[in-house]
Automatic annotation (TrEMBL):
Its EC number is 1.7.7.1. GO terms for molecular function: 4 iron, 4 sulfur cluster binding; ferredoxin-nitrite reductase activity; heme binding; metal ion binding. Residues 56-120, 311-374 form the Nitrite/Sulfite reductase ferredoxin-like domain. Pfam families: NIR_SIR, NIR_SIR_ferr. It is an enzyme of class 1 (oxidoreductase). PANTHER family: FERREDOXIN--NITRITE REDUCTASE, CHLOROPLASTIC. It comes from Herpetosiphon aurantiacus (strain ATCC 23779 / DSM 785 / 114-95). SUPFAM superfamilies: Nitrite and sulphite reductase 4Fe-4S domain-like, Nitrite/Sulfite reductase N-terminal domain-like. Residues 129-289, 388-509 form the Nitrite/sulphite reductase 4Fe-4S domain. Keywords: 4Fe-4S, Heme, Iron, Iron-sulfur, Metal-binding, Oxidoreductase. Belongs to the nitrite and sulfite reductase 4Fe-4S domain family. The keyword Glycoprotein does not apply. This is Ferredoxin--nitrite reductase.
Length: 553
């Protein structure tokens, strides 16, 4: 370090002392002893490079996230997850917003068994957490959506192979998330990833070339940012896509901020540099010029809802999307899904951003038989509209940051709203139990950031409550939701949101006028009135500038 080197945060110093990937042999050593007290604090942090987080209450049991590019897995891989959940990972199995499985309650001594079981079916948890390129996401209907421009599967697989276990990228300033879209029915989550590829086509040397536009600097958490288009087009060629991904990631590695953990994501560098300067640096790293972005692009639509029966682009084939309650799935249900994928499909299962599960490649002639199977009566393809897209973060009892239980609370809330309002369009409600935003609440139609408030009866038991963010969106009109109310008691929420959604339904101009469009036309004060808080300033009280409701004394 020189005198001009900025002061590094403690995690940076740990990473210089020993790379995250180098902790593997220590994990085996710790597992052999089985004594959690032997694990040093810095090694515990490095466990993340192998997809492991110390579950609450930090007494020797772990959460493990699988690396599953694009959320696509085979039936055999699903069976391996079942085996783990029934033997060494007895906690809840969750489908996550980045299209993978998360297992809980793994004892330190059982970690090697978990690694070996995953490896035996070609899976791993490598770099599923940590300051590294994470699981690459895509559309859950990649390669099967009828109106897709490019099949993104070879691209996200190539990126995954390039990034995983590569020491060039094992010490990035912070987590690094990548997405590849195909265009078509359900766009991927390009605006909230650090690096995203979205399809386009342009004329180069007299020929129409299909390829990707490139976006950088999206990310959620405390200060959400939407990705910026850096005005680059690369042809749909595996080497070209990997080459630019490498250059962008190295620029981030070398110039990204390492002073403060909460100011280290790529989004902060992009906010300071702007897209053009970042582009110039990428060109420097590449050593050759880049094409400007394509303007001929497909519409980017994001509904988050691929539950149901949909025709694939392949003739006579369908995918069937199953509704999993806020991503909580039992080992028996996964086993049955694997069996059905073998019997009716092509032994393939997919996981979606809305924490649901898809069975693709179902022949038209077998649809009725599949729909009559017992599993589809439990995880219903025609489940209620709001429950289909409700998303909840891990929350209590597993997450150390959590203030409230999320999965059941969000599921019940969505169910109550489905009872109150019959919607014919998707409405995405996402709940996180702290500002980290693991449920992606900032880009939901209705985003909920849970917390607790004092109990009015004066007792020590705090009550669940939530901030309400409205009008978030992905796709072409990507928007960060506006925080219109804070600390709303959970017990009042179903009624308040019921009023709001009913008002939307009554006021919308057509089914195309979706919740986010309508919310954009309303002022914060209007939205608060629809939430049932009365006029902005009434005899009952007043809204503060921060958005909380002060009752008149
Ligand atoms: C400093 C701590 C953390 C921060 C800042 C953080 C932030 C985030 C953010 C912003 C996402 C959004 C996903 C996306 O970009 O698409 C996410 C995803 C997620 N987070 Fe966290 N998180 C933290 C810790 C945790 C912990 C402790 C848990 C669980 C015990 C957790 C569980 C998840 C899950 C399940 C996802 C879904 C994504 C995946 O599969 O990779 N997070 N996190
Ligand atoms: S949002 Fe907060 S409470 Fe929820 S899983 Fe993420 S870190 Fe935990």
């Amino acid at each position: 370090m020189t005198a001009t080197t900025p002061k590094l945060n403690p995690v940076e110093l740990q990473k210089l002392e020993k790379d995250g990937l180098a902790v593997l042999e220590d994990i085996y050593r710790y597992a052999q002893s089985g004594d959690i007290n032997e694990v040093t604090e810095s090694d515990m942090n490095r466990f993340k490079w192998y997809g492991l987080y110390h579950d609450k209450p930090k007494d020797g049991f772990f959460m493990l996230r699988v690396r599953l590019p694009g959320g696509i897995m085979t039936a055999d891989q699903a069976d391996a997850i079942v085996h783990l959940a029934e033997t060494v990972a007895p906690g809840r199995v969750e489908i996550t917003t980045r299209q993978t499985f998360q297992l809980h309650t793994i004892a330190l001594r059982d970690i090697p068994t978990v690694f070996e079981t995953l490896e035996s079916v070609g899976l791993s948890s490598i770099e599923a957490c940590g300051d590294v390129p994470r699981n690459v996401v895509s559309s859950p209907v990649a390669g099967i959506a009828a109106d897709e421009w490019i099949d993104p599967r070879p691209f996200f697989k190539a990126l995954d192979e390039h990034f995983a276990y590569n020491t060039d990228y094992s010490n990035l300033p912070r987590k690094y998330k990548v997405s590849v879209a195909g265009g078509g029915l359900d766009a991927t989550q390009a605006p909230i990833n650090d690096l995203s590829f979205t399809p386009g086509r342009k004329e180069i040397d007299g020929e129409i070339v299909l390829g990707y536009n490139v976006w950088v600097g999206g990310g959620l958490s405390h200060e959400p940012h939407l990705a910026q288009n850096i005005d680059v087009f690369v042809p749909a060629d595996l080497d070209a896509v990997v080459e630019i991904a490498r250059a962008i990631t190295l620029v981030y590695r070398d110039f990204g901020y390492r002073e403060k953990r909460n100011h280290a994501r790529l989004k902060y560098l992009i906010a300071d540099w702007g897209a053009e300067r970042f582009r110039e640096e990428v060109v420097n790293y590449l050593g050759h010029p880049l094409e400007r972005a394509a303007t001929d692009v497909p519409p980017a639509v994001y509904s988050g809802d691929v539950v149901g029966v949909f025709r694939q682009k392949q003739p006579n084939l369908y995918w069937v999307g199953l509704l999993v309650p806020t991503g909580r799935i039992t080992p028996a249900q996964i086993r049955e899904a694997a069996r059905l994928s073998r019997e009716y499909g092509q032994s393939e299962i997919r996981l979606t951003h809305s924490q649901n599960l898809l069975l693709p490649y179902i022949p038209e002639a077998r649809l009725d038989a599949l729909l009559a199977e017992p599993l589809l009566q439990e995880l219903q393809p025609n489940g209620p509209r709001i429950q289909r897209t409700v998303v909840a973060c891990t929350g209590l009892p597993y997450c150390n940051f959590a203030t409230i239980e999320t999965k059941e609370a969000a599921w019940q809330l969505a169910g109550a709203l489905d009872q109150k309002v019959e919607l014919d369009v998707p409405l995405r409600i996402h709940l996180s139990a702290c500002p980290h935003s693991c449920s992606q609440h900032s880009i939901a139609d209705i985003g909920l950031q849970g917390g607790v408030i004092r109990n009015p009866d004066g007792s020590k038991n705090k009550l669940p409550a939530t901030d309400i963010l409205l009008g978030g969106a992905l796709g072409d009109d990507a928007t960060i939701g506006r925080r219109v109310a804070t600390k709303v008691p959970w017990s009042e929420l179903a009624d308040r949101l019921g009023n709001l959604v009913t008002t939307y339904q009554a006021q919308r101009t057509s089914p195309e006028d979706q919740f986010r469009h309508w919310a954009k036309r309303q002022t914060d004060d209007q939205l608060r009135v629809y939430l049932g808080f009365g006029e902005p300033e009434t005899e009952e009280g007043v809204w503060t500038e921060e958005g909380s409701w002060n009752k008149s004394r």
